[in-house]
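User: Modeling request: complex.
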Amino acid sequence: MLKIRVIPTLLWKNLGLVKGVGFDSWRRLGAVLPSVKVYNTRQVDELVFVDIAATGEGREPDYESVAEFSAECFVPLTVGGGVRSVEHVRKLLLAGADKVAINSSAYENPQLIRDTAQRFGAQCVVVSIDVRRSNGKYECYSQSGAQATGRDPVAWAKEVEACGAGEILLTSVERDGTMEGYDLDLIRQVSSAVKIPVIASGGAGNYEHMYAAIAEGKASALAAASMFHFTEQTPIEAKRFLASKGLPVRRGHTG
Amino acid sequence: MKLVVINYGMGNLASVCRALEECGGEPVLSAEPKSLAGADRIILPGVGAFGDGMKNLREAGWPKAIQGALENPEVCLLGICLGMQLLAEKGFEHGEHEGLGLVRGKVERMNPETEERVPHVGWNEMRPAKESGLTKGIATGTDFYFVHSYQFNVEDRNDVIGTTPYAGGFVSAVQHKNVFGTQFHPEKSSFAGFQLLRNFLGQPLDHA
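Assistant: Request completed. Predicted assembly structure:
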């Protein structure tokens, strides 16, 4: 049976690891590489790695740094931030990324999703969707949550699926960094609208939140950052908890 | 030991090489078919579409070189993910394509059951179908990392060494004589993947 994945999200900016609240108030957490090594030793299911400054600074992904991190990463690595062309994707895959997350540029150029899926396979295309809620209505935002797109997350999720996206990384901007729980309503709406896996992101603060995102939200995977950075909670314990609730999780190889 | 990783422009070559190094191998990444001369182990990695993969292999002249190298029964090849699928006779991803024909069967789109999603992305079990040097020391039901939408429907059940319970059950590891393949990515499967790669690098590799 396919396992529920628990995925630490590593955000970085100016060569350092950061974490914010609501895509703002960034706090420095130190160097990236030691974190990658620790998560590998602990056999995490996967890592998501986003350069949050690249798009804003109008530059390409930092392939050299990605190569450095991926060399220490023996679990799947999704890399995002600043990806605007098939050539960027190609270089990231060459640098050791297994999947590439596309966000802002997908709104301007959905063809990029099609071209990437056609060239490298749908399974390496993760479309990252950042969502804010205002007046009870959800809306997709680009540019690290700064720019309203006028798009409805469910309609956009269906569109990117039709374009060939292999997975959706769905983040609630308001819940991000709060550790108050995922936006279950948003996750459920998007998960039930598409056939591709949805990774719940934004708001995880404890193991119960994670369980709810699967049981109620119908997500396929759980991304979390703050609860791993700032609390004693770990991916391994998260999976132990999920297993105790009857969910299928992966246990590491001990041979 | 000469270990060649075939570079045909498809996929996560750096990750494959890094994992092989971690397992004690000294991989040579090569875009030259003549590099297979004297090779003991060959890795055919791959992320991408079947048609593009075969086109790239053919244009560089790999199929003949691979066949030639495998005439020596001591030489072993491991196809990973798309690399395993390309071992088939035919692939049906975006049209119909000829494969390398090293393992009989064809590659077709997965048929998900209700509630199952495709691509099949994530950690899933590999259940040994028979003993093989490749999977030695790996407990039944150990999880490996998968990302794919197509599956290898193998003609001869004797060539199946592992299956995975998804989409009605599909073949996740194959072996035909000195040709091996895994649908999952050992290079991204943490310690379980290392075990499998170490088995592949072992000498002799049991492929009776």
